[in-house]
Amino acid sequence: MARWEPGARERLVVAAVELFADQGYDATTVTEIAARAGVTKSTLFRHFSDKREILSAGQEALSGRLAEGIADAPPDVSPLDAVAAGLERASEAFGPVNRAIGPQLRAAIASSAELQERDALKRVGLSVAMTDALAARGVAVPVAQLAAEVGVLAFKQGYAAWIEADDDTGFGPYAVAALDTLREASSEL
Amino acid sequence: MARWEPGARERLVVAAVELFADQGYDATTVTEIAARAGVTKSTLFRHFSDKREILSAGQEALSGRLAEGIADAPPDVSPLDAVAAGLERASEAFGPVNRAIGPQLRAAIASSAELQERDALKRVGLSVAMTDALAARGVAVPVAQLAAEVGVLAFKQGYAAWIEADDDTGFGPYAVAALDTLREASSEL
């Protein structure tokens, strides 16, 4: 078996999410995930240390893209405009597969306390990444923290709207639309 | 042994937090927690189903107080003023013991991935409770969600400042001061 298997990582994520949604996170074994993805268990363990990590796949890359987009925004834009740039950069990592597995991923999380905790912690990680990136631009810390929370909300709400919609639009416009709604809301606090 | 033991619940929480901070969450058993609190294991299990639950102690009551304070705020106040009323109501549940165990609780959470996840999920629970209470006042959903996130940030930041300070002030003024800082920050988004 070749050590390099194109698409194995993505197939493993899809297989895991399907199994988690079908039969529950706790009941799913790495052996089943590898079998459904059509790879050996040793291939699975080259990509992920355990089944939990399969659901965290891409989180660091996502945080990195959010931070890069914020860092690369023009220096004179507002904190929320910088967050919008972060969301647009992050959206480049969201393809049709992400959209397709969205409803099953949501079902899997809803059915597992452990996955809900993991999801909540992921949210904290995204917030920290955005706060740090905004602070590095010179944004005052309370403003950076608040803008990052708005960014996380926009990310989550944009994602929920995106996976429910039936169109050819990418994730970016959904995330930015959610951010614009929250931007308006911030004037009514 | 009497079934009703005044203070047993609070002693168990303090004992658990001390042990988690000293020797780590994973290494601490319910037997050790009961022994340090000076109660039997069966008393511990009358109060908590497992050691994780000891750290979630009071979370539902806290969410309830936040929601009640928001519901009871005068009808014409702004969403953030309603959140401030929720924080003030919640602060009634925070006494000297909460302040005293704060640094150890923080150390325990910092040392355990499992406790970090639990803490992150607690945060989501507080946010949902405040969002629902604000929406029940007729606040538009995006505004309610945003105000709730500001409330959670104020809660966390106020708590961090409170446990670090050395004065006789209760939790309430710290939480409200943090909220005021974030309120000002919201105009700079």
UniProtKB/TrEMBL annotation, chains A, B:
Keywords: DNA-binding, Transcription, Transcription regulation. InterPro entries: Homeodomain-like_sf (IPR009057), HTH-type_TetR-like_transc_reg (IPR050109), HTH_TetR (IPR001647). SUPFAM superfamilies: Homeodomain-like (SSF46689). Residues 29-48 bind DNA. It holds the Pfam family TetR_N. The keyword Transcription applies. The keyword Transcription regulation applies. Residues 6-66 form the HTH tetR-type domain. It comes from the Bacteria. GO terms for molecular function: DNA-binding transcription factor activity; transcription cis-regulatory region binding. This is AcrR family transcriptional regulator. It comes from Gordonia humi. The lineage of its organism: Bacteria, Bacillati, Actinomycetota, Actinomycetes, Mycobacteriales.
